Amino acid sequence: MRPLTKAVIVGGGVAFVGWVGWGIYSTWKAKSVPYEQLRTLNGGEIRHYPQTIRVETTASNQRIAFRQLFRYISGANQGNESISMTAPVETQNGEAISMTTPVRSEATETDADTVRMAFYLPSEYSPETAPEPTESDVTLVTEPQKTVAVDQFSWYAPEPRVARRTRKLLSTLEREGIEPAGDPYLLRYNAPWTPPFMRQNEVAVDVVEED
To answer: For 15, phi and psi rounded to 5 degrees?
Structure first.
């Protein structure tokens, strides 16, 4: 084997190991919204979530929406509080906050070409203590406690695949006699640079509270 070829192979292997290592680290460091699993359902789950706080925006595409929310967690809020995607970071004019997964996205009801995206804040935040956004197109939303049905899948989440998983989830709910209480949405649990085979995604829909 030629030295150059060997160097390329070794370098690629090191890069791959580093990529996987970063995926493990970022997934381990990220907090998740707490919930109670009520039961399993055809490869998915029915869950009960407590009250949560999310920061939300709408934009013409997911990249723009993500950037708007990223500015908020980077300090574009009244407390100048910095929120890391994967771990707490040191700040000068406020406390360090760990961002909570998943990231939520969905098409808006008024415009199918517009996406609504939200980041969930850690559970220690309340409507009174969550830092207010300084940009007009970013808002805080308080979600009351709710029951949610989810269908889990890995790898990337392109629109056709999300549509198939959504149809599966809705068909399962219809077969089980469970009534949706809103429109489906997508939940993603990993940073954008996480290896695809390590990614966790879910299509979800709020449902009528089970007895």
So the answer is: -65, -40
Residues near 113 by Cβ (< 8 Å), separated by ≥ 6? 60
Buried b (16+ CB within 10 A) or exposed e, 134-152: eeeebebeebeebbbbbbb
pLDDT over threshold 90, residue 152: yes
Task: State how far the Cα of 87 lies from the Cα of 115, in Å rounded to an integer.
Answer: 26
Q: What is the pLDDT of residues 82-122, one digit of tens each?
A: 765 433 332 233 445 555 678 888 876 555 578 888 888 88
- The secondary structure element, H or E, covering residue 54 is strand 52-59
Helix spans in 41-197 (H): 62-73, 159-176
What does the pLDDT read at residue 26?
Answer: 47
- In DSSP notation, 76-122 reads -BTT--EEESSS----SSS-EEEPEEEEEEEE-SS-TT-EEEEEEPP
Neighbours of 196 (CB within 10 A): 11
Taking alpha carbons only, the member of 119, 87, 115 closest to residue 102 is 119
Tokens of 143: 């979600």
Q: In angstroms, rounded to a whole number, what is the distance separating the alpha carbons of residues 179 and 182?
A: 9
Contact 142, 86 (CB under 8 A): no
The encoded tokens of residue 161 equal 């695949």
Q: Closest by alpha carbon to 140, among 57, 30, 71?
A: 57
Tell me the domain boundaries of the chain: 3-48+145-207, 58-118+128-136
Interatomic CA distance for residues 68 and 34, integer angstroms = 25
